[in-house]
Write a structure and sequence with these properties.
52% helix, alpha/beta
Amino acid sequence: MRVLGVDPGLTRCGVGVVEGVPGRPLTMLGVGVVRTPADAELGLRLVAVEQGIEQWLDEHRPEFVAVERVFSQHNVQTVMGTAQASAVAMLCAARRGIPVALHTPSEVKAAVTGSGRADKAQVGAMVTRLLRLSAPPKPADAADALALAICHIWRAPAQNRLQQAVALHAAKALTPSKGRTA
């Protein structure tokens, strides 16, 4: 499974591609940051994020895109920029028919470090260890993007089985039983 992780942001949008399957060593295929100038007009910044993500999609051809789910922050301006960059990433993937998964920061931290309350340094250290890198990716947005991809690789099979079980249960509930008489 090849996953593009996206840590959305308007100034720095972390991107990282990881390939692998649960239970086997993972491989980093690329990591970086799409940057936009803080003083540029919003529309131009969103176009720059789109162009950057499109380049990553073209170059790495992921099967899935994992995006950090935007959560409420105290700074409304920051959360709006994060949500806008997140929407751009989802749009780029949807345009190509690539499934998108959203993961909360605590889900990602728990998957990668074992604790949903891990700090950025702990996430970076575990990403470094899991991907057998010589040093943590910089800036933290890049490490977070790799952590998102790792989280998706590890959680997607279980989530898919759960969704299939729920769908099967719902289908059985809708199917009339044979042999019953009214």
